[in-house]
């Protein structure tokens, strides 16, 4: 398995490229911007993108969806409850002082228990983890060792809940009932900042 992190835009968003070394298929998770930077990394690894998957639809995670989809032909996937945020992306971008080309609507909606799979076995399981946003999801690799948590959980912190659709109690519940039961050894790859483990966050995260 190949895993590359591409940090994009002034928001320092982690865009992840998860690839299979044999099939050369890949998923792009949260292409937040700087599409050329993401696409160069994909090309340098010789990968074919099977899907573009978003953990949620805040503007710092969706800025390069259109360009990556147009360049690769890969379908875009996210939770249905993120659609209002996605469709308001251009307007929300202006509130942050950035120009954002309106992303396309998803080709597939994801829900709890779904799997995102490539033709040759690359797979991610979908876990609904709302709270930072209404339809936030986390993605777990087939071996259960990696969790792409979006902005649900960070090293030493949690996602903000003061944006439209955010809810603090819902977020804490998502972490405690959906993520922590995955096991202390699971490596968490958040939407911003360094990786951590669920065990470390269980012990030391002040919000938990």
Structure commentary:
This protein has 208 residues and is of the alpha/beta class. It has seven helices and 14 strands. The chain has helices spanning 35-45, 59-62, 65-72, 83-87, 89-95, 168-179, 198-204; strands at 2-8, 13-19, 25-29, 48-53, 76-79, 108-110, 115-117, 123-128, 137-141, 146-150, 153-154, 157-158, 187-190, 196-197. The strands form three sheets. Strands 1-2-3-4-5-6 form a six-stranded mixed β-sheet, covered by helices on one side. Strands 7-8-9-10-13-14 form a six-stranded mixed β-sheet. It has a two-stranded antiparallel sheet with strand order 11-12. The longest helix has 12 residues, at 168-179. The protein is globular and about 40 Å long. The mean pLDDT is 95.
How is this fold's topology laid out?
Blueprint lengths: L1 E7 L4 E7 L5 E5 L5 H11 L2 E6 L5 H4 L2 H8 L3 E4 L3 H5 L1 H7 L12 E3 L4 E3 L5 E6 L8 E5 L4 E5 L2 E2 L2 E2 L9 H12 L7 E4 L5 E2 H7 L4
Parallel strand pairs: 3-4, 4-5, 5-6, 10-13
Antiparallel strand pairs: 1-2, 2-3, 7-8, 8-9, 9-10, 11-12, 13-14
Helix pairs in contact: 1-3
């Amino acid at each position: 398995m190949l895993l590359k992190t591409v940090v994009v835009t002034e928001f320092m968003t982690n865009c992840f490229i998860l690839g299979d070394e044999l099939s050369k298929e890949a998923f792009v998770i949260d292409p937040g911007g700087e599409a050329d930077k993401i696409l160069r990394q994909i090309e340098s690894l010789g990968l074919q993108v099977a899907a573009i998957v978003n953990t949620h639809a805040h503007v710092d995670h969706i800025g390069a969806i259109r360009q990556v989809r147009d360049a690769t032909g890969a379908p875009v996937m996210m939770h249905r409850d993120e659609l209002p945020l996605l469709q308001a992306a251009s307007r929300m971008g202006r509130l942050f002082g950035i120009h954002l080309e309106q992303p396309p609507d998803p080709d597939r909606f994801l829900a709890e228990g779904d799997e995102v799979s490539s033709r040759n076995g690359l797979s991610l399981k979908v876990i609904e983890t709302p709270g930072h946003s209404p339809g936030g999801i986390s993605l777990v690799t087939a071996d259960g060792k990696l969790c792409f948590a979006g902005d649900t959980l960070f090293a030493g912190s949690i996602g903000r809940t003061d944006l439209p659709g955010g809810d603090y109690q819902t977020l804490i519940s998502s972490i405690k009932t959906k993520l922590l039961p995955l096991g202390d050894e699971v490596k968490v790859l958040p939407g911003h900042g360094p990786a951590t483990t669920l065990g470390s966050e269980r012990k030391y995260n002040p919000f938990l």
